Amino acid sequence: MNSPARLTDFASLSSFTASVGSTEEGNDDDDDALEKLEDVQIEMLLEEVEKANHILGLETEVFERALKKFEEKEQMSAAFFLKQFSPAGGSAGGDSQTGSASPRTVRKRSKSRGNIGDRFVQRLTIEQKCDLAQKEIARFRTEIKGTNEASGKAISLLKAVMKEARDRALSMKQDDQEFRREIAKHAVNPVTRKVNPDKAAKFWMERLQDLDALNLKLRLKNTALKIRRKRVVQTLRQQEETGDVLMEIDFAQLAIENQLYSQRIEERNQDLIHLKLMTSRVLTVLNAYRQRLNALLSESRRLRADIAVRLELIRRIDNETAIVEDERGEAEKINRHLIYQMENFQVPETSYYVEAKSDIYELKKKLQIWQRKTEITAMALHTRRNVWHRIQNECPPRQEVKTTA
To answer: Is the pTM of this model over 0.70?
Structure first.
């Protein structure tokens, strides 16, 4: 439907009416000016005129619809007036006269209007245009509401049909699978390649029993629904008899309460949306703080390990400091002893040093002499031993004779 487009076009009717009138008067006065225009300007002017004609057509359609309703109301009021004030016997004639006179009056009115329209253009006021626009908007809203209801019913019906078709297709698929599993695989003779009739008949009998059970179940459900409907109808009749039926004022009160509850629900929904937004923000902040806490915990673990390493280093430094202090004490003690020795040191005289050097020289000299004598003695000893060994090698038989004697 093009009702929203008509609403948007109808909303701009009043703004274009005066401009169209001024354009028509200018075109009547300046027909020669068109020849001086270029093609592009003529095309733009043509588009504007077409747009204005379209809007005027919509406006004329709305005005004709409103005029038709107004004339129908006038005819109904005139007929009611004639019925009320005409004689009882001439009611039929009066009706026929009104029916025959109405076209004449219409023709006369239309003729008079045509004559007036030739002389001047009669336009509606802004208030009348606003009233017509509001009526058209209300009519379009009613049409849209009816269309939405009809489309909703059609959609519900189509959804039900689709659901039924889907369930039917699923049921047929399951039946096909069961048939293939029970008959096509297990009921076929591998030699003759024929279906066993007993198994096929048993399968279809079981299927028919399942369908009968489903049919019985649906009948029982339908019977229960009929009984429930009967009880509801009886309850409504009893309420009508006792006067407990809801009246129009009750429905109005219920509508007011429904509106109030709808407003409360809307407020609660707005609060819920606000709380959801706050929850999302809180979760975002919480995640940020969690990340920050994890970073701080990892930094704390790193700092604890660093602190432990530095404490161990401090302990080692303290031990080394104690050892160094002990060594320093010993060094100070040795230093004091050396200082004491240096303070109490007495340098010997030069003659003592010369005598000591001459004694050392004499002793070295004697040492060399004795070393030479020792070498000579060692060589003589070596020679003597060689001679002795030779003598021993030559004299063994004599020694053995002496020993035997």
So the answer is: no
